[in-house]
Every structure is written in C-alpha cells, then in structure tokens.
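Researcher: Please generate the 3D structure of the following complex. Treat every line as part of one assembly.
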Amino acid sequence: MQNAALWQSVLGEIELSVSHATFTTWFKNTELIDQNDSGVVISVPNIFAKKQFEVKFNDQVRGVLSKNGINPKKITYTINTSGKHTRSSRETTTATTPTTDVDGLISVNPRSKVGQTTAGNLNPRYTFDNFIVGSSNDLAYTASQAVAANPGGKYNPLYIYGGVGLGKTHLVQAVGNEIIKRDPKVRVLYISSETFVSEFLDYIRFKKKGFSEKYRNVDVLIVDDMQFIAGKEKTQEEFFHTFNHLHQNNKQIILSSDKPPKSIPTLTERLRSRFEMGMAIDIQMPDFETRCAILNIKAAQSGVNLNHETVEYLATNIKTNIRELEGALNQLLAYAEMRGIEPDISTAEGLLGNIRHSRPQHLSSKQIIDKTAKHFQLELSEICGEKRDKYIVVPRQIAMYLLRSELHLSFPKIARELGRKDHTTAIHSIEKIEKAIKLDFLIREQVASIREKLYA
Amino acid sequence: MELTVTQENLNRALSAVGRVASTKTQLPILSNILLRTDGNRLLVAATNLEIASTQYIGAKVVKQGAITIPAKLMTEFIASLPKESIELKVVNDNLHIKCGTYTSTINGFIADEFPELPTINESSSIQYSIKTDDFKHAVSQTIINTSNDSTRPILTGVYWNSFEGQLYLAATDGYRLSERRLVETKSDVAAIIPTQTLSEVLRNITDDSTEIDILFDDTQVRFRINDAEIISRLIDGNFPNYRQLVPKASETTVTLNKNDFIRITKIAGLFARESGGSVTISADKEKGVLSVHSIASQFGENNSETSAKVSADGNITLNSRYLSEALSVIDCDEVEFRFSGKIAPCVLRSTQPDTDYYHIIMPLKS
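Model: Done. Output below.
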C-alpha cells in the first residue's frame, strides 16, 4: 500500500518534468517493490529501462523520493520477470521448466486454432470471487457467470453497461479469467475498443499483417469500453465483420460500455441490432449495504480491520463510484500507515474533508424537487402544480421517489411537499417508479443522473 | 565531433545497424542513429528498446563527440556516395558531411537524449563461441517455425535450451516444430530469443566473420561478431516441454530422394491454393511409390508420384507450404518421412543416423 502510494506520487511529479513520450516509454509499468534501511528497489520492465534508470533517471528519482521524505542509501533497479531464463545451478532444464500444456501445443487444424492458451491481456486480479455482489449488479453477475460456464451459448453477445467505476471491467475480465480457469486451452482475448481502433489504423496505414487473424482466431473476445467505437465508421465495419465471423462460429463475445447500444450515438444500425441480440444488462450504482461490504472486503484484503463507523462514514459520503470509494479507502489506509495511527473516523474526516464538504450531509426536500424539475426542464410551479400531463407526472413521481429513497420522508409529508393532498398519491407514485426502475432503462438512467447531481 | 572514415566502413555499419531504428515509435529519438567517437573508433548504434545494435568502425578522430541523426536519410545518403573517405563534423547539433565533391548537412539531435545502451555482466553469464556457418544453419532451420501470434509471445522466438549436455535450438508456431542440436554445453540454458533479434544477427554476419560469441544472462542475450554487437531482451515465459511431442515410432516410414519429394510437393501445391494448401500424401508399399494428391474444385486436380522405399501403406493430409518449407531447410539428399494415421504428427529428418535436425508437422483434418 505504502509503496504503491509513494511511487504514484513520485511518478506524478516526474510526469510533469519530462515529455509525454519519455514518460510513457520509460515510466509506464514501473513499480516500487521494496523499501527498507538499505535502500529502495524499483522494478522496471526490461533491460533497456534498467540501464536508462541507472544512468539517466537515477538522480531525478532520488530527488523526488527525498521530496517525499525518503532518502534511500541506494536505489536498485530490477527487471520484472515471471521466470528466470538461464540457470547456472545444477538443476536440469526439464525439471525447472514446467510444461505449459504440451497437449495443446501443436494442433491439428490451423483454421480453428483449438487448444492454445493465452492470458489474453487479462488481469488475473479480476475474478468472480472478489466481485462484490449487491442488488445493483446481481443480474449482470449472474449472466456473466452463465456465460463463463457456457461460452458461446445462451447470452451471446453479453453486453454490460453502466457508469464509470461500477465494475464493468472487473466483471468482463472475471468472465475471461473464469473461462481460462475452467479450460486453459480456450483462447480468450481482452482488449479495449481503443486498442482495436488503433490496431485497425495501423493495419490500414502500415499494412500490418495479422490484424483480422488476431481477432478472428479467438474463442472468446472481450472488448471493453465499446462506446469509443462510435463515429468511426470504417472501424465499425471491420468490427462488424469480426463480430459476424465469431458469432457464426459460436464464439463468445463480451462487450462493455457506458451506455446501452441504443444510446451510443453514431453507432451503425447493423452493429446496434447485433449488440442487442444477446443480453444487454446494466450495472447500477451500488446501494449503501454493498458499499459497506466493498469497503470491508477491501480493507480486509489490505490486512486492516476498519471499524463500523468509519466504513459507514465512507459509504455515506461517497455514493456514486466504486473506484472513488476504493481511492478514498486507499488514501485513508496509506495515511494511517505512514503516520502509524489507526484509520478511524476522525482520520477519515480529516482526510476526506474536502470530499465531505462537496457532499451535503443534509439534503433538503426542496433541493430534490428543484434538481428534479431542472433535470426535466420544468418550472417548480409546474411540478408542484395541478396539471396531470404525462411530461409533468413522471418527473413528479420521480421526485416523490427520491424524497422517499434519499430522505426517508413519510408519505403524507412527501405528498405535501409536492402540493398533493392525499398521501396515497405518494404511495402509488413511489411504487410505480420502483417498478419502472426495474423494467425501464430510461427511468433508471434519469433517476441515476438526478441522484448524481444531488451528490455532485 | 570531427572525424574521417571510409565510405565502405560507414556504409557497412549503417546498413547493419540502421534497420533496428524504428519509425513507429513514441520516442522520436529511436528513429535516429547514434554516432559517438571512442578513442580512434566511431560507434554506430541504434535501438528499438527491444534490440540494441552497435558497430565499431575505425576512424581518424580529430575531435571527440557524439550526435544522433535520422537513420533512414543517413543510411541512404551514405550508401549513394562514392567509395572515398568521408569527413563528418558536428556544428550546432547539425552534422556536416563531406565526401569528394558532395557536401550536405543533416539536422541532428543531441546524443544525451539517446537511450543508454544496455550492457551485460560477462562474469555472471553463460558464454558460447560458435562458428558462424553452424549458427547460420541452425538458426535458419528453426526460425521458419516461429510464430507471429502476439497472443502467445513464447512462440515468437527460438528456444535455446540445454538437454543432456547439448545445446538445442527449437521453434514452433503451434502447427509445426523443428529442433536442431548446436554444440555441447556444460551450463544449463533455457532462453527464448526473439525472432527479430536472430534475423538481425543473421544480417550482421559477413563473409569475413568466422566466429560468433553469444552471452546469456537471466534477461538478455548478447551476440558479438567482429566489431558488431547486438543486445536483446529475452522473451519472458516458459517454453513448452516440446520433446514429448516427438513421436518415437511411426506406422509408416518412407525413404526417398529429397529433391523428388520437393518437386511433387510443389506441383501438388499449385492445385491446393483453394483448399489452403491441403494435399494428401499416400504411401504404397507394394508399388514402392509415394504420391501426392490435391484437388482444386474449380480448376482440376493433380496426382504426382515418385519412387520411394515404403515400410507400410498409409496416408496423411498436410499443408503443402509447411512441407515445402521443411524440405527446403533439411540438408541431405535422402530424407526419412514417417507418420502414423491421420492425426498424429509426421516427422521429417535426414536418413543419416546421427542427424542433428528434425522437423515435425501436424496433419490437417481431412
């Protein structure tokens, strides 16, 4: 934890002082892996980076480290490898080289490359086991598990959408990891749509070979952040062909995006209909209980036991984004570790003060009604008025729902707030929206976005 | 920096090193070549951060110094000059070049920005000295089987490994595999050298080079031929234990003249373009022939045969391209070709008993 946070701040500072190209070439994929009395150890990706750090960047790294209060005697750079290549010991090669599924090495038919393993760019950290399920994402979770159990089967393509930091990437990668775990021979390829676009451009520009083979010779293709393909027509066409090829051969396709296919502008009709033909599910913002669960589990993973109040404090104050939630937790833990104090609620308050200020603890009912009206571009007088046109009724019902869900007001009070006489109107409205949220994406999206504005 | 070199030397160094400089890179300086004086020598170097290629050439140095200049322009310019001496002089980050009646100025870039070239610790590494002919031979026999599938990086290089006191080279792309014994070894080696590195080394071999020094450490390898040096990263990962794939015995063994085999394979291949190179090979013991059959549904079909010593009847379907390529790198007049049924791998090797090389191809589903 501490190492990661420290290195992040070092990188942050170095990024400002060197050119972008230099930073991405040399500082990407570096890590601070150890620090003790004798010095710090930094892991770098290859021999070139090692030499470059030793000769060119050493002073700079040392300088920034000392600004962060660390004055190592010695900075050592090691190359980050998964295995050693040569051994001068007496172990025999056969014994030290674990077989990587020899059965699958050579395959019979080149056109369907069966039996090849690949890590497929997947991050092994993302698994189903550490995905925290709550009411907001259980449908997506269940569907993903079904896909992992039977790739290319029922839900093809699987299309998962939702806002930032809600776990889309985690979920789609978990599917890939699970499939590989079940059968290491399945070829899984995970890419972001941006990679797809840039490789496609290379393919056109430099006549780089192997583009379509790469994407068509897989059993499971996972494309993250599909929305970036919007507006790129040639790429969409290429993806369309890739999609068809895979789908016809019963290969599983998994897509993630921040919007449902319908709401991605400039997505060609034929791709849109294809994205919708399998299963499109959304991931919602996590509810309070799920947020608490996430915090507890993450804290436990770092070997820290957070007390109940602190967890609740964080969960109450950060509502919209799991990434932000984790970030706040990491910040808290790092701070506490560096100072050698307990990460309790007062530390959290001190540290996250800025977050807290930006998030009003006490929403007023007026604010909710105001924001809702504004969201639908209605006047306050309209939403609280007598009219029962549909374009006013739905916002009014949403406002009631939010008053109930966010402020837990009583039904008669809710009715009064919106100028209704009868509390049964409020009950009916709230039930209606509760139901609609489960069924209608549009309503769900609108409620989510108003909620976001309330806490923004 | 100010010095004089011969056109031949500079041209040779630039063309050996220049290919490594890449134009498709985030770091613009990587498309440049580094020129740096070192006593009475000139260092010419390029890197793409996977490979670093360097070469020293003799020079009359007037003033020490260093500069980097665009690889492509410099290489092409020097190559077109006459075989005379060339004067190089750096003035304000620009390189002035004078050769006979030709003068030009190339805009350079300060050498400080050029990445540090990696070095290898000689004491803690494993060293081999290999005759260039043996090296060339062994590498060209295996490199054809490396894969370019970036999803399986371990197959995109040649696997150098020690086994029972011998150093072997092996490569596979998942459909075919070849292994070649190179030299005796006392150390244990298990290193995957990227395909591009080996092709760069092959390019650096000239007629006057007789020996090549190879140095392995945990993460990198260095090749040295005369004054040229190539340092490369190794591919990270464990190469599959391929030895257990080699069939120990086969149902059908065919012995035949290699050139005959190449000819009928090539002919059959002409009719196999439609079917992705698929040709069916049949061995007939009674007649003593090996025949290759291929069909192009739109154009016609072909059946070519040649006499052969056949141990048992059998047939197998193979990709004719793989077969031709394998035959073209086997160095002998007579080959042994053995297989068992339609799904087991077939083996190609020389008929000599102590042969160093074998080639395995997986059949196609027919």
